[in-house]
Amino acid sequence: MKYLIELLAFCALFTMMVKYAVRGGAIDGLYFYPKEVQDRAIAIGLTSREMMNRKRKEFMPLFFIVMTGALLFIIAYVNNVGDFRTAYLQSLLFLEVMNWYDGIVIDKIWVGFSRFWLLPGTEDLPYVQTWKQVLKKRSILSLIWIAGAAVTALLVVLMGYVLK
């Protein structure tokens, strides 16, 4: 039950970070969209490529720092883990849940069923991933998170040595 609550909190933080990215409207998250939608939005003057790239450069490092920091905090301090194996397994669990949460809840449900994400002038373009696209992307990311979890676990172990 404890892990379920932690996973729900981690996914809620993920959702809040996405919401923060688009606080000025969906156009602020144009870099999340397929290239065709990006090109159309830029062509019709909703934004510029420079602005889109600037918003991505502003948000993605913050997103990475916050989500990595939260993961390290949960594993090292909330769960008091100090060994590599346990840290790795918990990291893998959190990263995989986040991965599939992003694909299913964010991409398919929130983006797929909310008018918020529909950009004016791009209504004829597909911007919601198909199930096939979600499964392919999330499967590839699942493999990547196998290595990513090792990095996080190593950081947890190093934090234990440094902060003793």
List the helices and strands and how they pair.
Blueprint: H1 2-21, H2 35-43, H3 49-78, H4 84-113, H5 131-162
Helix pairs in contact: 1-3, 1-4, 3-4, 3-5, 4-5
Question: What are the defining features of this structure?
Answer:
164 residues, mainly alpha, 5 helices, 74% helix, elongated
Summarize the structure.
This protein is mainly α.
Q: Which term fits the overall shape? A: elongated
Elements, N to C (H/E):
HHHHH
Largest sheet: none
Average pLDDT value? 96
Estimate the helix proportion, in percent.
over 70%
Strand percent estimate: under 5%
> Distance between termini?
29 Å
Query: Into how many domains do the coordinates divide?
Result: 1
**Cα gyration radius (Å):** 18 Å
Uncertain segments: none
How is the quaternary structure best described?
single chain
Determine the structural class based on helices, strands and strand pairing: mainly alpha
Tally of DSSP helical segments: 5
Structural overview:
The chain is mainly α. It has one domain. The chain is 74% helix and 0% strand. The protein has 5 helices and no strands. The protein has helices spanning 2-21, 35-43, 49-78, 84-113, 131-162. Helix 1 packs across helix 4 and helix 3 (49-78) crosses helix 5. The two termini are 29 Å apart. The model has no long low-confidence stretch (mean pLDDT 96).
